[in-house]
Amino acid sequence: MRLHEYQSKEVFSNYQIPIPRGRLASTPEEAKLIAEELNTPVVLKAQVLVGGRGKAGGIRLVKSPDEAEEEASKVLGNRIMDIPVRRLLVEEAVNIQQEIYVGLTVDRERGETLLIASSEGGIDIEEVARVSPEKIVRIGVNPLLGLRDFQARNMATEIEIPRPLWRSFIAICQNLYQAYLDLDATLTEINPLVITTDNHLIALDGKVIIDDNALFRHPDLVDKRDISAEAPEEIEARKFGLAYIKLTGNIGCLVNGAGLAMATMDIIQHKGGQPANFLDIGGGASSEKVAAALRIILADPQVETVLINIFGGITRCDEVATGIKHTLQTIETDIPFIIRLVGTNEMEGRQILADAALETAETLQEAAEKAVNLSPEPVS
Amino acid sequence: MSILINGSTRLLVQGITGHEGLFHAQQMLAYGTNIVAGVTPGKGGEWVMDGKVPVFDSVRTGVEVTGANTSIIFVPARFAADAILEAVDAGIELIVCITEGIPIKEMLLVKHVIQDQNVCLIGPNSPGLISPDHVKVGIIPGSITKKGNVGVISRSGTLTYEVVYALKQAGIGTSTCIGLGGDPIVGTTFNEILSHFEGDSQTDLVVMIGEIGGREEENAATFIASNMTKPVIGFIAGQAAPPNKRMGHAGAIIEGSVGTAEVKISALKNAGVQVAKYPEEIPDLVKSL
Predict the structure, then answer these.
(1) How many domains, chain A?
(2) How confident is the model at residue A378 (pLDDT cuts 50, 70, 90)?
(3) Winning range, highest mean pLDDT, from A11-15, A316-320, A343-347
(4) Contact A112 B112 (CB under 8 A)
């Protein structure tokens, strides 16, 4: 679960990491009011969970409260990379001397936490990583020892933080690590961490991602989940524990297991078709879950064929078949289905669907071919 | 011979009185696996499965009394990391963790602890291992496999089933089939298993099934190029997937362009691996060798 910038900054502030003064606004009038309170030039920042927000016009520097109101009215209610902007963070503008990157994340290859930093932070950090990887410094953190002061100090020297700022840089690294631990984050990142013209460190922007598998330990964070920027089908999918990603094609896919779901999409593409979605019902799905998955697929207006590929292990084919049958009894649809059921309780599953007169397939290849043949060429 | 599991496997089931644990323990016993003990804290002293298997309160007691050397874990996610550490502490040599959804921080600790120990952890979020007609430690349905000379390693669950089933339909059997587990942090990666297959007399060739994300397949390609004399056939799931959902900048900084299907496929091809375009092409490639 990814936190908004304003939520990440709340976290930073709770962990004594300096952030600019500011508040959230949901109307132009509020933006004006906050600008008046701050009594400085302010920055308006659209709270949308997409990268490249600044380049898309989601960040504006304004000099006066009136200008704040005017600019806010242009951004609020508009869309940034197709996400509606409902809130702005209105913050004091900061005079920047240098932008640094500092973050903590899980390096899955090494199986450990990394402290990562660079003297060249800011919006082009990925470009820095690509073009001059030597400017990105990584230090591994032993999970039993935690991040030690000497490691943060070594980082400060590596990325050439001025000596008078070492103490506060080390404190920021330590506090960021503590937040990373306490919140079960897989990422806590400050980018940029700014050295101001009057020689202070301040977190100008940040990102926090919480490990979904650990959310049970953080019910307060779950309540803060902002679903306003999410597609309704993704909210519905999460409610039923389904992994769903909308794609651009016209063949709806319902599969058990992420690897098999991807392989099913691959073979559809290989046979000349385009998948409309990735959908993994997980292991041991109930008929209710299958029905919810089908409802989500059928609600997508782009879907012209549905391919169901189930390889039963923990998942039972009869449960899946029951879910399909119930859905078809409640939703009227002309969309053709191709169903492949193999594995646990395969015969029982086929029996349940026998009178539904649905197209079936024996192999994955056959299923994909039938689905592609039944789907009109997608308009590109 | 098979790899990792064989006639001397003495299996202990952690979480044996749970719904999943009991069901799969019965399946494994019926398949011929030597289940010597179960563990459920608070239920020590009971017997399960028609009085065939004793239940202990701790892995340590189970090992002391029965000489168990392998453990399989079915306990819920929030207790599973502890269950792994308990098995390590009791001296179990092969631990197979079926549980999915363990918090990543817990796995970082587990990974750190096991790196200096003489233990092999498969998973978490793994379907386990099967040596057809012989031993099964996991949840892979026995009926979809057939004994033979192909070693199968995979990061997926049901996609593995798809592949071993397609092999069986084509008359090709498996020596051992192993699911490494789908989580970002797992105990064992391709290289260790490839090395086991290289040294296994029953295995003549290896099928490895990868997927997008991480760089395990890239590392495996390097390993194959310099260490494998047996042929390897590969498949990478996720060629049609949109660009990976990245973990902020840090993920992109660490992984860069590695992790995409194209990069993995070309790394494998450069290492001499034949890469199938879809799962059901794998049997054809096996036959062509």
Answers:
(1) 3
(2) low
(3) A11-15
(4) yes
Confidence category of residue B180, pLDDT binned at 50, 70, 90: very high
Domains defined for chain B, CATH in brackets: 11-122 (3.40.50.720), 128-288 (3.40.50.261)
What tokens were used for A13? Answer: 């502030």
**C-alpha pair distances (Å), A201 with each of A3, A171, B107, B151:** 22, 11, 33, 55
A4, part of any domain: no
Burial of A127 per CB tally in 10 Å (0-12, 13-18, 19+) = exposed
Residue of A182, A212, A213 for testing the chain B interface, max B β-carbons within 10 Å: A213
Would residue A8 count as lying in a domain? no
Asked if A248 and A367 sit in the same domain, the reply is yes
- Give the residue carrying structure tokens 């297959």: B197
For residue A230, give how far its alpha carbon lies from the nearest alpha carbon of chain B (Å).
Answer: 15
Cβ within 8 Å, pair B158-A260: yes
Nearest to A266 among B127, B156, B239 (CB): B239
Q: ipTM value, please give it.
A: 0.90
Residues A100 and A174 in one domain: yes
Q: Determine the average pLDDT of the residues in A174-184.
A: 98
Domain that holds residue A347: 232-374
Nearest residue in B to A207, CA atom:
B248
- Joined tokens for residue B236: 């990478």
pTM for this prediction: 0.91
- Per-residue tokens: B201: 């007399």
Residue A241 has φ and ψ, to the nearest 5°, of 70, 30
Q: Is B159 an 8 Å CB contact of chain A?
A: yes
Spell out which residues of chain B touch residue A135, defining contact as CB-CB under 8 Å: none
pLDDT digits (tens, 9 = 90+) for B208-238: 999 988 889 999 999 999 999 999 999 999 8
B30 interfacial to chain A (CB closer than 8 Å): no
Verify that A58 and A117 share a domain, yes or no: no
What's residue A331's pLDDT?
87
Identify the three-state secondary structure at position A324. Answer: helix
B214: nearest CB among A104, A108, A262 = A108
Contacts of A129 (CB under 8 A, 6+ apart): A118, A136, B249, B252, B253, B256
Q: Which residue has the tokens 């007399």?
A: B201
Residue of A189, A262, A312 lying closest to B250 (CB–CB): A189
| Cβ of residue B243 closer than 8 Å to a chain A Cβ | no
Minimal CA separation from B210 to chain A, in Å: 9
A304 is a catalytic site residue: no
Q: Which residues, at least 6 apart from A355, have a Cβ–Cβ distance to it below 8 Å?
A: none
> Is residue B246 very low, low, confident or very high in pLDDT (cuts 50, 70, 90)?
very low
CATH at A27: 3.30.1490.20
pLDDT attached to residue B135: 97
Pick the range with the lowest mean pLDDT from A342-356, B50-64, B142-156.
Answer: A342-356
Q: What is the mean pLDDT of chain A?
A: 92
Task: State the pLDDT at residue A1.
Answer: 87
Q: Let me know if residue A105 belongs to a domain.
A: yes
> Residues 119..158 of A with a Cβ closer than 8 Å to B: which?
125-126, 129-130, 136, 138, 142-144
